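Lab notebook page, bench 4
Experiment: in silico fold of construct C2
Operator: M.H.
Input chain length: 365 residues
Purpose: comparison with the prior construct
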Amino acid sequence: MTITLRRKLVGAAVAVATIGSLAACSSSGTDNASASGSPSASAAAVKTVRLGFFPNLTHAPALIGMQEGYFKDALKPLGVSVTPTAFNAGPDAVTALFANQLDISYIGPNPTISAYTQSNGEAIKVISGAASGGAALVVAKDINSAADLKGKTLATPQLGNTQDVALRYWLKEQGLSATTEGGGDVSIKPQSNADGLTAFSTGQIQGAWVPEPWVSEYVAKGAKVLVDEKTLWPDGKFVTTNIVVRTEFLNEHPDIVEAVLGGHVQALQEIKDDPKDAKADVQASLQSLTGSTLDPQIIDSAWKQVEFTADPLPSTLVTSAQHAVDVGLLDQGEIDAAGGLPGALYDLGPINKALAAAGEPEVKQ
């Protein structure tokens, strides 16, 4: 995909997010339908569920669920529609959740932890996993080791997002200091993935820690993988994307949450049973949302690096939280004040109901 098309993708994502914000004004209302053959009492107060996601391959279940109408069909018996809301990275989605402009979102582990701690453990719950793996440090071809990164500039999707924490922690483990203001061994410049790819192509940065399909996009532009994040985790598994819900929304509308997760399970099943159609759905969804698609070679390369799963891999989120503490982006006292991790962060009851209905094994906290 050309750089111009990638810019269009991010621009369209912002437009979708704006639509989602406007939808917040009409997401609730009064429905006097009778109990017989009507939406449940829980659903009656909601006309649309605002669902967040990123235009990344690691959010493929969301893209597939929208393209195939899995969310729409699951919510239809409740008389509820779905409003998709796209973001570039997790911190923006957290802001929307806190502002009551978003109900449920696909999101990375570190923004999840941030939302949990900032709200003293009250604002959100993790209700499912979505993806494991699919992130890496990509660098210019003349960089062969951590030592070669001294004096270089690297990008991440956003300050405090999952890949930003991963990069800062890895650099610290290599004995390198990192700063966004200059003066350290390595300069980190958080920016949108599309802008980072442009900056790499023009020599303004020398690499980035990014999720797929951006890893494959960078490689296509002449970068190489210096660190595949899978190699840093036991069994190569680590949570890249999970699903969170506003606690209030879960408490008030559990049937809607279960319906959304039913659509999520359908998308995961398609990925498992028919990856060719699943990739086609991702492409079609991106085309519908942004007017552009991924190069077929890019999506094929990226697809191999991601495992799509309903398992939120809680232990890896706990480790990610400790990494954020170690690099100064999270305070241990905030974690303790929120009730610790995993604490009350997870509610896997709804996803296990959806899995059981599909004949799939449950996931464990």
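Observations: The radius of gyration is 20 Å. The mean pLDDT is 87.
Next step: discuss at group meeting.
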